[in-house]
Specification:
Layout lengths: L7 H13 L22 E12 L2 E15 L2 E14 L5 E4 L3 E9 L1 H4 L2 E4 L2 E3 L13 E11 L4 E12 L6 E13 L2 E10 L9 E11 L4 E10 L3 H4 L2 E10 L1
Antiparallel strand pairs: 1-2, 1-14, 2-3, 3-4, 3-5, 5-6, 5-7, 6-8, 7-8, 8-9, 9-10, 10-11, 11-12, 12-13, 13-14
């Protein structure tokens, strides 16, 4: 999903960072998303920082993720990231990352179907930077599902494929999350995630992550996540992080 002129090690890291760690690709703080849209006429705004470390490189993003409940069961999303890359043997690069535009539509509900199910297509615009992000536009086409149980347990996940302007950069991904409401304001979760190899030499990657959400009040929330690769670890995901402050109103 990243441009061929990039050095190959940065292209591999970029897939890990922008393919795995982008916040809106996931039901924050996770990589996998959930199917629940933002409430009608309400906002969810994340200020976030994320990143991934692979062999010889650390890269990531800092930005704002806007979500608005435009209609019942319909969420509109825009993500504005500033990206960075820090090679071990070179200077740190900064620039505008890939702006994301998306719409989540929930077409099945637990009370009638037994599961919440949503379609959440997402467009990644080309980055104007030559050193960070991806200079090629791409489109993610995923389906996400969720099931809630009494006692504070919930499970969600799904997956889809990324279609890029360069067919060699296409790949698919899938993941699942189990969360538990440990305290009225504290939720914990674990995730298993997998991304296939692309035709551009980027290997497949699998990872295990742990997340936490703490609700300070009805309008202000803190989220955090740590992930460790378990497949092709050195070249894709030695460790990753995500942290954000969420404002809801």
């Amino acid at each position: 999903m990243f441009p061929l002129p990039m050095p190959r090690k940065w292209a591999i890291l970029a897939v890990a960072v922008f393919g795995l760690a982008r916040p809106a690709m996931a039901g924050p703080p996770y990589v996998s998303d959930d199917p629940e849209p933002t409430d009608y006429k309400h906002f969810e705004i994340y200020t976030f920082n994320n990143g991934t470390a692979a062999r010889g490189d650390i890269g990531g993003e800092t930005g704002i993720d806007f979500n608005y409940g435009a209609a019942p069961d319909l969420q509109l999303t825009a993500t504005l990231p500033a990206a960075f890359d820090r090679p071990a043997a070179d200077r740190t690069n900064f620039g505008l990352g890939n702006i994301e535009l998306a719409a989540k539509y929930r077409f099945l509900h637990q009370d009638t179907f037994g599961l919440d199910v949503s379609f959440f297509p997402r467009v990644f615009l080309p980055s104007p930077s030559h050193t960070v992000g991806n200079a090629t536009a791409s489109l993610l086409l995923p389906i996400w599902v969720q099931k809630d149980w009494s006692g504070g347990w919930s499970a969600f996940g799904g997956g889809g494929c990324v279609v890029s302007g360069r067919s060699s950069q296409n790949f698919c991904e899938a993941g699942g999350v189990v969360t538990y409401q440990l305290l009225p304001k504290l939720q914990l979760g674990v995730e298993l995630f997998h991304q296939t190899a692309d035709g551009n030499g980027t290997p497949a990657t699998s990872s295990v992550g742990m997340g936490v959400r703490y609700d300070i009040n009805d309008n202000f929330h803190l989220l955090g996540y740590l992930r460790r690769g378990i497949e092709n670890v050195d070249t894709t995901d030695r460790y990753s992080w995500y942290a954000s402050a969420l404002f809801t109103f």
